[in-house]
Batch of 2 targets.
Target 1
Amino acid sequence: MQDHDDNQKEAVPGRRQFLHCMAWAGAGTLWLMKGGVLQAHALDGLAGDEAADASFSFVQISDSHIGFHKEPNPDVVATLRAALAKINAQPDKPDFLLHTGDLTHLSKPEEFDTLSGVMQEAKAAHTFYVPGEHDVIGDNGAEFFRRFGQHQSSGGWYSFDHRGVHFVGLVNVLNLKAGGFGSLGADQLAWLKKDLASRSAETPVVVFAHMPLWQLYPQWGWGTDDSAEAMSYLRRFGSVSVLNGHIHQIQQKVEGNITFYTARSTAYPQPAPGKADAPGPLKDIAPGSLQTYLGVREVRHVRGKQALAVTEEVLA
Amino acid sequence: MSGWQAWLRALALGVAALGAGPAAAGKAPEAKVEIKHFAFAPEVLTVTAGTRVIWTNRDDEPHIVVSAGNRFASSKAMDTDETYATVFDKPGTYAYFCSIHPHMVGTVIVR
């Protein structure tokens, strides 16, 4: 978003652009990742070269939970629409969208229909999806994969390359075991190892999956049983960004060259780890402030720097 | 077959029919499990064989009751205040969990 207005980019860098950005970005926070280390940046410090170097961007949305209809958000379709409108309004068009799961609340066909219909409003050329546990109820994800899958593997996981960045979409919400967490499974891990083996360590890698790929808060089941094995394949790369959903709030962690991020939901917030009896919808929010808890994430690739800039934008 | 034996047999059949019929469902022993705050309460439930166990979801999130090892039929997704019931006929220890929140675990012990 730092160079969201091409016409103004050259002429008025600095504070005026910063204020202009803030006007539509709400309380958006800009993060730059360099060599695996996350750095907070003032938005007005990014005009000029940093912005000009950006080669492309994409946007992550998550947890739209179509079918949820209770407090604090009885209209999750409207808030998803607002998220897409915010994305569509950017003069710098993202190359594509990622939806990191829980498209629906209960995996019902009519919920998938609604989600598909609303996503038609996105101007981006393509949306890549991975399933959340709410999308695979009753059929192990058959309907989800039929509608939204990439059909590269029988398990639904996939990868693709985009302008020098390697993207990997993983599935960690199936074959869950009693008392366990998210799960990748032996087949997917073997595929991942092979998928990454031929890539050079200089290739920036973006991994996305629904449940956090680190043990974020085991007491609430926020983690993935075998994520450490997956990370062992990724450790040799200079820049790895892991994008997850599931917990309806932003949490971040840096581990060597691997940076983990969870995204906001477009539907409703959940409490911070341990700040409530259970991880259900956060209802105790001030009237009218729901949209400050919801949002989208833009990720910008900066050419030649092996770094991705991650920007959070709230809907308000 | 003596008259006494025939009477016993008829009684047994009658009881079996009552137990199987929907009109008599209320007469089978019942036990309840509440699902609240992402937990099963009680977490360990002990019942006698033939007890109908009823789960009720009191959360705003859906939950699913799934038998570990597929030893009894799984529920569908239960939305708020929806219930699921199944009868446990055979003694044993039945571990179960919520397939969308697998850290939620419970046990039914049938004696």
Target 2
Amino acid sequence: MKQEKYDAAVIGGGSAGMAAAVSLARRGKTVVVFEREEVLGGILLQCIHNGFGLHHFKEELTGPEYAERCETELKTLPIKIYLNTTVMQVEAEDENKLLYGYSGKHGLIRAEVRAVVLAMGCRERNRGNIGTPGTRPAGVYTAGLAQRLVNVEGYIPGEKVVIVGSGDIGLIMARRMSWVGAKVMGVVEIQPYPAGLTRNIVQCLNDFSIPLYLSHIVSEIHGKDRVEAVTITPLEDGVPDLKQSFRVECDTVLLSVGLVPDNEVAKKIGVELNPETGGALVDSRLMTGVSGVFACGNALHVHDLVDYVTEESSRCGEYAADYLDGSTGGAQYPSGAGRNVKYVVPNRYDPAAENHFYLRSLVVKNRAELQVLLDGRVVKTKKLKHVQPSEMIGFSLKPGELEIPVQGEGRLEIAITAGEDE
Amino acid sequence: MSEKAREMICISCPLGCHMTVTPLGGEDVKVEGNRCPRGVVYGREEVLSPKRVVTATAALSGGVVGRVPVKTDGALLKELIPSLLEELYAMKIEAPVEQGLYLIENYRDTGVSLVTTRTIPAACKP
């Protein structure tokens, strides 16, 4: 067994892990990155479409280009990288934490560190998560798996495709499958509004005249060995109206029904998770309930833009470096979701420092208002032109914008109010 | 004679501005609701001659993976996309390949080229 010692370990070599490692190394910390795939870059490498990097790099890049920029920057710094290496166990009870990485190439590696950054990204929800009835033939894939097959491995999973869920990966795959010669029969969305970004509805469905069935479900998958058809059923007041069901012939079903942070390692360490995000509960410095263990990127909460992942993860690396320097900021007070807000990250704030929040709306509204409430009192508002659940909202509270709470609990709530329904 | 205003969502970037684009006859177009100058460019084009950036992959042999991702370095006229894809799918690229390699230059005099978007090393010989 290799036994090594670093200031910090980063689990995951995607956009989040690379950004956190760069921040740490720039602060002069010794860093090791564990990546289970053969290359750095993570899921960006299969996202061959463009639209990445406009905020962070100020130009429009494809996923692989974005990943390569991050990797190029990372490689200018003395950062130890273990590829093909999966972290199976972390012992984090003490100030010194032990990580065990397993690798076919390097064998067993034990790294002793003082800070750990969780940057493992997320996973796709699958057929079992949504409980679609029917037979169990071949030809049912998660959209991200199909994306990897088409874009990286070079296999086309089918010729006539029905997509379940209008998440971004599903929409992007609708266009991708059309461009490789498959016929996309339709996209079926249970909600009355699309789950993905509007631009993807425009660019990936409308451009190809692919029908979008809102308030519909796939109520049955048919086929013995291979998918032969699906039954699509509309919802009336949230209840399937079986009489209106129709059958669509297809050989492939792609599921784009949401992502959940990948937190197997976090759970093992005893990190407390937020039931709304599936990621860790963190303070304003992105530190989990376990001292010295930080979380960022899609392992913390699912982002819609990689630019935000990079921004958050760079800060996470800074906070981890601060922790290593023994500086942990001021007192922390609770923050959370108020009316019409699904979740707020982080879950604590430091009134003496700058606080960056990310949140998601529960509602679709135009001309809404974001309200910051301190113990129930509105202390700040911000106008929002348009809100919808699929578009993450980011905002900052500068130091001095809040008085340091001396009375009451000091609980900060972020709510979305006013606005017009779309 | 001006046409009816069109509601559209700018797809130049992930912000996706909701815009109203009104053709004023000829090359004249009024764009509202955009948050940056790219919205004007997009709104005008979407009405006069719609274009799209194409991203796809080409077959790669001898690399650590079987496909190399590619993109057009600018937006291509929508009507030319099928023929571009046909040419792309007929290609066979040899690894190693660098990001930014031109596979097709100035496609049909549109000024748009097809370039690789990932550096892929050659696979180690067994």
